């Protein structure tokens, strides 16, 4: 009897939490089929108009292009930094490793506005403010902790005796790294890179300090379209992003159990 | 030894090699010479420095003093990948992301050998270790024994100047161990490679080696052939390692062949270093040091026919496979205990308290000076 | 192995240098800008922050909104993490996926979703009108409530994962033993499971607070004019007003607050740990 009550209570609160997590996402999917008023619930019309217009909207397309470009380049930079940091921290001979680990994870702790203002302060004198270069460099720092954390965990699991086996049998350190260590870090690096890419695609706070008219990234564009010049096409865009993120995360979790590294 | 093409040339020498970790001298001025085609075992308890020596030969550890000389050339500072060695690790150290074939190919690719030669060699060595049928598998799909054979093939494939083994069998169960021992010996006979084999198991060392170096705390206690070591362990430490597990204290050496304790004379087969008549010392005895003369009941055990027979009381007895192990309390004024093993199953098992007589076997007894506890 | 280690050390240094140049240097530049006004060293910007009523209000608001959101998130997060950890192993994957997906789902998009849910023509207000009649007034958007909802939604997955991870590390045999010794499930939870899961709670709390206190986007999208937090204030000062020094100072105060709270939490955790050890 008591157990049954407990089960019912659990069921109710878990349902409420789940609803809380998913409600805004479902809402977006729902209203994306309503081209007239995206804030209307329940929707009063049904059509695919938002989706067809999505692929004709110049501003949105160029924002997507810019954000994907920035995301890719900054993820590549962050991947190198993450890889170097992880092998250096786990296996290198660096002084004050605890402090250095805080340095690498620091961008998660320091408020994004602080870093954002900092980037603005250093990029303005260089004439880089508002340029994709500035945003790319800034993103590479902000997203790197996600890669570093996964790679540190992965590198700690790696048995160094494999490197010795490689070297004794004729491999130079670089060759051993490229053929033995790197391939085994690759799954972790890829999942970290995908997560970082998603973070870069969604980065708003730091970017807003560096953006200018010609560098409107995707999240800034979305903000424009939901708050300033309201346009229902954004619902289709948001729906596509929701579904894409779900698919990517599902793959990552099924393949690599990424929750263990976060 | 191996093939007739192997001339007696020095392959590798260690010249006063020393390693110090944080002020601890882990390897203390060790000298060793190994001929081409010889199989050397480094034998010693855990922590005695075997692995460190092996790693200095491989170049994975740099000596703090002394030289590693390979075929007359000082290679002390040659990086490991330029030494042309092969190594078999205790934990196999296979590359988990590669197939068996790719593992064996690894050293050859690193050397950028021509494709044809790589293919030919990999086939040859996979066949030698009987793994050709598993070439496409990954290491984790193989049993421990199979993995260790892959590891062996990977090391053999580079046709190393010296093949190094670091306790390769200690992760395997007894039956597999036997099988692998045979295989390693067979391969050594067939291929004639030069090998250094690290182990803490004297039976492995005895079975495989042309030479054994017994290590204790970073120093070599004895360096000689298996026969010599078995027959004549030069120190108590070595004797202990080779089955001289019994100890009789407070003994005086009478002459080269006899020791005395109280009124009893005990024949001695071997003398430790620096042992001279009239020295005070102790005896180490193998498990076969006692030849049992009769097993009788206390009542009938009265007359003493043989002058050299010693009386003892059985304190414990048990079967070990088809052998019998007895713990004896030696009487006749010695009043010390030894354990002996008889090569047959005594039926019934002699009961505790039973009196027996036995005779010491000289060839299983060594005398050492001092108390052996330095 | 020295050469391999040297190789790794070299790579490590490259990463360290990059972070010094691209992360520490900008943050230092913020600190310098905040105390260096017109070629002079001065704490004027900090004095302005603490002596101006509006700024003080924002500071206080940031603190209480962060603290309230942190507590709500911890409670919801613990309940969910505990539920997930007790699921059969196979079903945990599904729940974790939902948690992680919402973690890496675009926050801009999620907050947009909340705009609709909480909006004037959204489901909650529609339902409210249906129940209480058209005349009843209820506004959710552009309020502190909306901001707190947004922050909780933003921070929840981080907290759930942290607590879940520590819950998974607790030996199941511990609670079995406790129940076998006659303790009720309730007592078992409070005496055995909960104390052992505290590291996860502290880690979750730290993360929740620092994310909440520094959020910029949530008040921007869901908050009204009165719901500006420190980050928004810093942005307005630097970009809208163009006072770099003041903006830097505000953002640096925020950083100091977060670091102080994190250190306080870790001290609290250590004290709790010692107390339970000596018991
Ligand atoms: N990298 C190292 N740093 C410090 N001490 C070490 C290191 N490697 C080995 N030692 C020490 O050297 C001694 C010999 O070790 P090792 O050669 O591994 O012995 P064995 O292989 O005979 O067990 C041990 O006391 C060990 O603790
Ligand atoms: Mg060893």
Automatic annotation (TrEMBL), chain A:
The keyword Iron does not apply. It comes from the Bacteria. This is ABC transporter permease subunit. The chain crosses the membrane at residues 12-33, 64-90, 102-128, 134-153, 174-199, 233-252. PANTHER family: INNER MEMBRANE ABC TRANSPORTER PERMEASE PROTEIN YDCV (PTHR43357). Pfam families: BPD_transp_1. The keyword Membrane applies. It is a multi-pass membrane protein. Keywords: Cell inner membrane, Cell membrane, Membrane, Transmembrane, Transmembrane helix, Transport. GO terms for biological process: transmembrane transport. Belongs to the binding-protein-dependent transport system permease family. Signal peptide: none annotated. Residues 64-252 form the ABC transmembrane type-1 domain. It is found in: Cell inner membrane; Cell membrane. It comes from Shimazuella alba. GO terms for cellular component: plasma membrane. Its main location: membrane.
UniProtKB/TrEMBL annotation, chain B:
Residues 12-242 form the ABC transporter domain. The keyword Cytoplasm does not apply. InterPro entries: AAA+_ATPase (IPR003593), ABC_SmlMolc_Importer (IPR050093), ABC_transporter-like_ATP-bd (IPR003439), ABC_transporter-like_CS (IPR017871), P-loop_NTPase (IPR027417). It catalyses: a quaternary ammonium(out) + ATP + H2O = a quaternary ammonium(in) + ADP + phosphate + H(+). Keywords: ATP-binding, Nucleotide-binding, Transport. SUPFAM superfamilies: P-loop containing nucleoside triphosphate hydrolases. The keyword ATP-binding applies. GO terms for molecular function: ABC-type quaternary ammonium compound transporting activity; ATP binding; ATP hydrolysis activity. It comes from the Bacteria. Its EC number is 7.6.2.9. It is an enzyme of class 7 (translocase). The complex is composed of two ATP-binding proteins (OpuCA), two transmembrane proteins (OpuCB and OpuCD) and a solute-binding protein (OpuCC). This is Carnitine transport ATP-binding protein OpuCA. It comes from Shimazuella alba. The lineage of its organism: Bacteria, Bacillati, Bacillota, Bacilli, Bacillales.
From TrEMBL, chain C:
The keyword Acyltransferase does not apply. The lineage of its organism: Bacteria, Bacillati, Bacillota, Bacilli, Bacillales. Pfam families: BPD_transp_1. It is found in: Cell membrane. Keywords: Cell membrane, Membrane, Transmembrane, Transmembrane helix, Transport. One of its GO terms (biological process) is transmembrane transport. InterPro entries: MetI-like, MetI-like_sf. It is a multi-pass membrane protein. The chain crosses the membrane at residues 7-28, 63-81, 93-118, 138-164, 201-224, 244-268. The keyword Cell membrane applies. GO terms for cellular component: plasma membrane. Belongs to the binding-protein-dependent transport system permease family. CysTW subfamily. Its main location: membrane. This is ABC transporter permease subunit. Residues 59-267 form the ABC transmembrane type-1 domain. CDD domains: TM_PBP2. It comes from the Bacteria.
């Amino acid at each position: 009897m008591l157990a049954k009550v407990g089960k019912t209570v659990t069921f109710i609160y878990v349902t409420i939490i789940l609803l809380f997590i998913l409600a805004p996402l479902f809402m977006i999917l729902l209203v994306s089929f309503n081209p007239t008023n995206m804030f209307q619930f329940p929707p009063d019309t049904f059509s695919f108009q938002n989706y067809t217009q999505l692929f004709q909207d110049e501003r949105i397309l160029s924002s997507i292009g810019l954000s994907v470009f920035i995301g890719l380049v900054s993820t590549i930079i962050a991947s190198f930094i993450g890889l170097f940091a992880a092998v250096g921290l786990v296996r290198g001979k660096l002084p004050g490793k605890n402090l250095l680990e805080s340095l690498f994870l620091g961008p998660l702790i320091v408020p994004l506005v602080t870093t954002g203002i900092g980037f603005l302060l250093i990029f303005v004198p260089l004439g880089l403010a508002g340029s994709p270069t500035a945003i790319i460099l800034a993103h590479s720092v902000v997203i790197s902790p996600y890669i570093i954390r996964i790679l540190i965990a992965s590198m700690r699991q790696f048995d160094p005796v494999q490197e010795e086996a490689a070297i004794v049998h004729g491999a130079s350190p670089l060759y051993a790294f490229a053929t033995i260590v790197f391939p085994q870090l690759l799954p972790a690096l890829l999942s970290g890179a995908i997560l970082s890419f998603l973070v870069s695609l969604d980065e708003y706070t730091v970017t807003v300090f560096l953006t200018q008219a010609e560098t409107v990234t995707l999240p800034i564009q979305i903000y424009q379209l939901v708050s300033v010049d309201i346009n229902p096409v954004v619902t289709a865009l948001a729906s596509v992003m929701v579904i894409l993120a779900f698919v990517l995360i599902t793959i990552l979790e099924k393949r690599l159990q990424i929750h263990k590294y976060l | 030894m191996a093939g007739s093409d192997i001339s007696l040339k020095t392959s590798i020498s260690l010249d006063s090699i020393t390693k110090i970790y944080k002020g601890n001298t882990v390897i203390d001025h060790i000298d060793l010479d190994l001929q081409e085609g010889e199989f050397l075992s480094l034998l010693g308890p855990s922590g005695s420095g075997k692995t460190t020596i092996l790693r200095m030969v491989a170049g994975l550890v740099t000596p703090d003093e002394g030289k590693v000389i390979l075929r007359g050339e000082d290679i002390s500072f040659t990086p490991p990948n330029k030494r042309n060695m092969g190594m078999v690790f205790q934990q196999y150290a296979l590359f988990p992301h590669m197939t068996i074939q790719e593992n064996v190919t690894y050293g050859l690719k690193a050397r950028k050998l021509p494709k044809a030669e790589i293919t030919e060699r990999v086939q040859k060595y996979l066949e030698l270790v009987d793994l050709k049928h598993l070439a496409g598998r990954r290491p984790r799909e193989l049993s421990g024994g199979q993995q260790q054979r892959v590891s062996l093939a990977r090391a053999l494939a580079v046709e190393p100047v010296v093949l190094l083994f670091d306790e390769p069998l200690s992760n395997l169960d007894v039956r597999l161990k036997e099988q692998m021992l045979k295989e390693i010996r067979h391969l050594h006979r067939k291929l004639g490679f030069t090998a250094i084999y690290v182990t803490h198991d004297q039976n492995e060392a005895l079975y495989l080696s042309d030479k054994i170096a017994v290590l204790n705390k970073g120093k070599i206690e004895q360096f000689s052939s298996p026969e010599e070591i078995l027959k004549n362990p030069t120190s108590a430490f070595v004797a202990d390692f080779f089955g001289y597990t019994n100890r009789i204290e407070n003994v005086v050496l009478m002459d080269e062949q006899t020791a005395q304790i109280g009124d009893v004379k005990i024949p001695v087969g071997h003398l430790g270093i620096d042992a001279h008549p009239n020295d005070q010392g102790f005896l180490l005895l193998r498990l076969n040091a006692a030849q049992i003369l009769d097993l009788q009941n206390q009542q009938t055990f009265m007359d003493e026919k043989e002058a050299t027979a010693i009386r003892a009381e059985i304190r414990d007895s048990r079967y070990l496979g088809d052998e019998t192990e007895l713990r004896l309390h030696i009487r006749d004024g010695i009043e010390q205990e030894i354990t002996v093993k008889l090569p047959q199953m005594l039926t019934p098992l002699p009961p505790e308290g039973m009196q027996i007589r036995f005779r010491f076997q000289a060839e299983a007894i060594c005398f050492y000076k001092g108390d052996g506890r330095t | 192995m020295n050469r391999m280690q040297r190789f790794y050390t070299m790579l490590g240094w490259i990463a360290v240098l990059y972070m010094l140049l691209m992360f520490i240097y900008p943050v230092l530049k913020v600190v310098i800008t905040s105390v260096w006004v017109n070629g002079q060293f001065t704490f004027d910007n900090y004095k302005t922050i603490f002596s101006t009523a509006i700024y003080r209000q924002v500071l206080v608001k940031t603190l209480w909104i962060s603290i309230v959101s942190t507590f709500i998130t911890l409670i919801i997060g613990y309940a969910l993490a505990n539920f997930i950890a007790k699921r059969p192993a196979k079903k945990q994957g599904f729940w974790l996926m939902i948690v992680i997906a919402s973690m890496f789902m675009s926050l801009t998009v999620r907050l947009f979703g909340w705009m609709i849910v909480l909006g004037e023509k959204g489901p909650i207000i529609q339902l409210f009108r249906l129940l209480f009649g058209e005349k009843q007034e209820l506004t959710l958007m552009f309020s502190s409530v909306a901001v707190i909802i947004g922050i909780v939604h933003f921070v929840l997955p981080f907290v759930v994962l942290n607590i879940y991870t520590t819950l998974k590390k607790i030996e199941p045999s511990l609670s079995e033993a406790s129940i076998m010794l006659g303790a009720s499930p309730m007592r078992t939870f409070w005496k055995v499971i909960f104390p052992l899961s505290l590291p996860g709670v502290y880690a979750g709390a730290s993360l929740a607070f620092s994310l909440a206190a520094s959020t910029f986007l949530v008040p921007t999208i869901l908050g009204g004019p009165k719901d500006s937090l420190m980050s928004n204030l810093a942005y307005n000062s630097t970009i809208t007003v163009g006072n770099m020094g003041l903006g830097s100072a505000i953002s640096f105060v925020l950083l100091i607050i977060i670091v102080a709270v994190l250190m306080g939490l870790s001290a609290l955790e250590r004290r709790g740990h010692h107390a339970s050890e000596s018991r």
